[in-house]
Structure formats: C-alpha cells, structure tokens
Amino acid sequence: MAKASEDGRGRTVRSVGIAFEILDVLQERGKSNVTELDGALDYSRSTIHSHLQTLEKQRMVVREGYDYRLSLRILDMARGVRDHVGNYDVIRDEVDALAAESGETAQFGIEEHGQVSYLYKTSGENGIKSASEIGTKQPIHSTALGKSILAYLPDDRVEEIVYSCEYERRTPNTISGPGELLEELDRTREQGYGLDDEENVEGIRCIAAPVKSDGQVLGAVSLTGPSVRFTTDRIHGELSDLVQYTANIVEINTKFS
C-alpha cells in the first residue's frame, strides 16, 4: 500500500509525489536515465526505477535506450485542459488582436495554486521575449496579471494567498510583504488594472486588466514591454485602454457563448 503523509492541507500519497518529482525533472532536462535521476532526487535507484516503469506503463513517459522522456500523452492532456476553458477561442482571438494593435507581447493568465499560470501568449511586431511561456507559472505578487486576478478573488481566497506568498524579491521594486501587496490590490481595484513596474525583471513593465463574469474573475489579459516604451503616460493612457477594452470583449463574448 502506498504510504500517506500529512502536510498543511491534509493527507498526501508519497508515491504520487515521487512520480511528479520525476516528471518535473524530465520536463526540465528533456531526457534522463535512472543514474541521472538518482543524482537529482533523494530516492534510491530501485524506487526511481519502479516509478519509471509505472509511468511508462501508464504512457506518461517513453523509454529510449537507457533514457526516459515525457510522452506526448502529456501534451494531449494539456490541450484537453486548455480546450475545457470555455472561452479559449475568444481569448486567443482577442489576445492576438491586442498584440497586433499594440505591437507588444500580449498574454492571458489564470490563477492556480496561488500563482499565475499562462494560458496563452503572442507577440506583435515589436514584442519582446519574456520569461513567461504557455503552461508556466510566475509569482502572483509581482506580476500585473497576478495582481489583476488577486484583486477580484473572494476575500477568503485573497487572504489565503496574500499571507502564504513567499515574496521572492526579484528586483528592488518587488513587493516585499502582505501589507504592501494589500495596498497594491486596493490601487488595482481603484484604477481597474494592475501593474508590474519592473518587479520581475529590471527594464520590463507590464499592465493587465481582469476578465470577470457573473461576479467571478476568470483571469486577466496583459501587455509586456520595455520600460523605454512602457512610459508612465503610455501605461495609464493608451495601454490601459487597450487591455481593459480587450478584457471587456472577452467578458462579453464569454457571457453569450
């Protein structure tokens, strides 16, 4: 029988945790063999090997010689998750339009496990490469998407996230604690959009607006670019209008889809 353990949220199954740690390493490295996984994880080779055999049997990994890699079943599962977002086609079309009109990098994110998960991303003709990629996560306290979503979550969920954040300081501008974040969320509600003022990467700014439906926040849409182009006047003028307009179009189409 698989062993269970207790954590802050209740009982967890140890073997499932080990399996996901293996999947995480394979995602990061592309391919690994048992010896390499043994060096990366604090488990015996026999434990890692038995978990790999189980994952292979479930078609979650593929063995190539002595190496293992993630299978395309994971990609299929990811597409299934994406397609179950009822308004995904609307999001994609409107974020594409936002990137084309602004010329910048546009994204859509949702909240998962107290972080921002990126559902869609595209770039206009002047778009820059950023750390975010579809399916990856970023801190909720230092991103425009995160603040825009967090500001409109239910009060108990806001409190849970605000007081459980690790508050990693990526730049001198990064929010450093609950009090500062709560003040920022008040500003976000007042102006209708959230900002990342070089809080994740120095020289990069971001602006985001929430997408809401029937009193619930579904996610947020954002624009990201260099601070030389994302000036204060442009952020609070043209760009805030664009992200709020796009968010509103997604809201309307979601309501009637």
Q: What's the arrangement of secondary structure elements?
A:
Layout: E1 4-7, E2 10-13, H1 14-29, H2 34-40, H3 45-57, E3 61-64, E4 67-70, H4 72-83, H5 88-102, E5 105-112, E6 115-123, E7 137-139, H6 144-150, H7 155-162, H8 178-191, E8 194-197, E9 204-213, E10 216-226, H9 232-255
Antiparallel strand pairs: 1-2, 3-4, 5-6, 5-10, 6-7, 8-9, 9-10
Helix pairs in contact: 1-3, 5-9
Descriptive tags:
alpha+beta, Beta-Lactamase, 2 domains, 6-stranded antiparallel sheet, 9 helices, two-stranded antiparallel sheet, 257 residues
Helix content: 40-55%
Let me know the largest β-sheet.
Answer: 6 strands, antiparallel
Which CATH class of the largest domain? Alpha Beta
CATH architectural designation of the largest domain: 2-Layer Sandwich
What would the CATH topology of the largest domain be? Beta-Lactamase
Tally of helical segments: 9
Structural class: alpha+beta
Strand content: 15-25%
Low-confidence stretches: 1-9
**Oligomerization category of the chains in this entry:** single chain
Give the overall silhouette: globular
- Rounded radius of gyration (Å): 20 Å
